[in-house]
Specification:
binds iron/sulfur cluster; 4-stranded antiparallel sheet; globular; about 30% helix; alpha+beta; 5-stranded antiparallel sheet; single chain; Uridine Diphospho-n-acetylenolpyruvylglucosamine Reductase, domain 3
């Protein structure tokens, strides 16, 4: 049986107390929300912590609030299940409800939180293993070692961003509220939050807490959808994920965006697809062209399971599925 390592457990009852604890133990403390990712990682020695700070008793971070500008503010401690089932989220951001509703299985979505999903650690077949397994391979750049087994002679870890919420939140222009005792509050777009470093792919300081995710009101005629490639229809992390959205204006496309993830350490917004689609009818000819453009820009690696050549072939398939699903949502309105 895998056991948790020894650590001091804290259960603060206010945001200020969380921030004070983070400041008191720089680099040695980890926040735990639902624990569905952190606890297995601690058991496997993929992450270390001498202090674990629970967010379970912190007030003010588990609500959905409609702001005066029409945006929705989602507390970081909302469960994925609560987000997926919330009436306003489903009505305004069906792609977000869809994406978080596809995370893992029902138990994980009940325990797992939106904040934990946004801040999820990256994944790789060479790191998400037991300590014994990693030791016998000589570890790797992400933890305890000096080489990468995916990109031989690589100097940068390319473990994959595997959180289902990230591509959709990025597509929707969502913004994060990050707070620390030393610097107060700052806001950052989800599209700027992730960096291409698999060791730690977030612009989140060790003394910071994510309190809220604000999703702006969708522009008129905006439709979006999410498509996730995974071995089984439950439990599994994405092998490829695609969020696609556009505005339909008089039957023509505007502001089309496609964000692809689970390939590299951060979600990637595809280039040149907005221009390619602008002013055109949303038909299969265009979707084929957009799929081909995505294929050219996506290069899966052996960082997660699933043959990379096959995953690449799946890129246009899943881009087209996301586009068709977004179009169907538009037609249903
Ligand atoms: C079998 C299995 C399958 C899974 N499948 C998927 C999947 O398909 N898709 C997917 O996206 N995920 C998947 N997961 C991962 C996980 O269940 C979800 O990502 C979940 O949303 C994580 O949320 P949590 O609250 O449990 O996070 P935790 O484990 O509590 O935390 C995760 C990380 O986020 C940090 N963190 C948490 N909250 C905050 C905050 N408010 N501010 C700053 N940092 C914070 C923690 O310190 C930790 O580093 C799977 C997990 C398992 C075990
Ligand atoms: S990408 Fe390379 S360095 Fe990163 S976890 Fe995988 S093997 Fe390790």
């Amino acid at each position: 049986m895998l056991r948790l390592p020894k650590f001091e457990y804290h259960a603060p009852e206010s945001i200020d107390d969380v921030l004070a604890l983070l400041a008191e133990h720089p680099g040695e403390a980890r926040l735990v929300a639902g624990g569905t990712d952190l606890l297995p990682n601690l058991k496997h020695g993929i992450e270390d912590a001498s202090h674990v700070i629970s967010l379970a008793r912190v007030p003010g971070v588990s609500e959905v609030v409609e702001l005066s500008d029409g945006s929705l503010q989602l507390g970081a401690m909302l469960s994925l299940e609560a987000v997926a089932e919330h009436e306003l989220v489903r009505a305004r951001y069906p792609a977000l409800a869809q994406a978080v509703g596809l995370v893992a299985g029902p138990h994980h979505r009940r325990m797992g939180t939106l904040g934990g999903n946004v801040c999820l650690n990256t994944r790789c077949v060479y790191i998400n293993q037991s300590h014994f397994w990693r030791e016998s391979l000589g570890y790797c750049l992400k933890k305890d070692g000096s080489a990468c087994h995916v990109v031989k002679k690589g100097k940068r870890c390319v473990a994959a961003a595997s959180n289902d919420s990230a591509p959709v939140l990025s597509l929707l222009g969502a913004e994060l509220t990050l707070v620390s005792a030393a610097r107060g509050e700052r806001r950052m777009l989800v599209s700027d939050f992730y960096v291409r470093d698999g060791v730690f792919n977030k612009q989140l300081e060790s003394d910071e807490l994510l309190t809220h995710v604000r999703v702006p009101a969708p522009p008129a005629g905006h439709h979006a959808a999410y498509a996730k490639l995974r071995p089984r229809d439950s439990i599994d992390f994405p092998r490829l994920s695609v969020a696609a959205g556009f505005r339909l204006v008089d039957g023509k496309l505007a502001d089309l965006d496609i964000v692809v993830s689970a390939l590299a350490s951060s979600p990637v917004r595809l280039n040149k697809v907005t221009e390619l689609a602008a002013g055109r009818a949303p038909d299969e000819t265009l979707f084929e062209e957009l799929g081909a453009a995505a294929y050219k820009q996506c290069h899966p690696l052996t960082n997660i399971d699933g043959d990379p050549a096959w995953r690449r072939e799946m890129v246009p398939v899943y881009v087209k599925r996301a586009l068709r699903a977004a179009l169907e949502r538009g037609a249903a309105r």
